[in-house]
Write a structure and sequence with these properties.
The protein has 111 residues and is of the alpha/beta class. The chain is built from three helices and six strands; from the N terminus they run βαβαββββα. Strands 1-2-6-3-5-4 form a six-stranded mixed β-sheet. Helix 1 (15-26) packs parallel to helix 2 (44-60). It is globular and about 35 Å long. It starts with a strand and ends with a helix.
Length: 111
């Protein structure tokens, strides 16, 4: 598994471009990847936007978002699933982790 620690410290206007840069760094990889944001967003709307972007970007790159770890302490209203993706507590109020795995078709193409 590849691990990326991503310093996402500016949310708001720059959030979208930072998310895209983070995903650009991760998706050339062909195996399971975990992205860790060392500073989770402040608001649930920002978190949901990141999760939407991660899910869409993963689908475009044949690397599905398969697990999410969010700080439940800061986002107590977060459900145990985001669409169909399991959501767990990250255990740290500042940490957001996104796990991606190659889609089944992508694994066969990479071999």
């Amino acid at each position: 598994m590849n691990n990326e620690l991503v310093p996402l410290w500016l949310w708001g206007k720059k959030m979208a471009s930072q998310c895209e840069q983070m995903f650009d760094r991760a998706f050339p990889l062909a195996n399971q990847t975990m992205l860790t944001a060392a500073a989770a967003p402040e608001r649930q709307e920002e978190l949901l936007d990141i999760l939407d972007r991660a899910m869409a970007r993963g689908l475009r790159h044949k690397s599905r978002l398969c697990e999410i770890h969010v700080p439940f302490e800061r986002f107590p209203l977060m459900d145990s699933k985001f669409w169909h993706i399991p959501v767990e507590d990250s255990g740290d109020p500042q940490v957001l982790r996104l796990f991606f795995a190659p889609s089944e078709g992508a694994v066969g193409q990479a071999a």
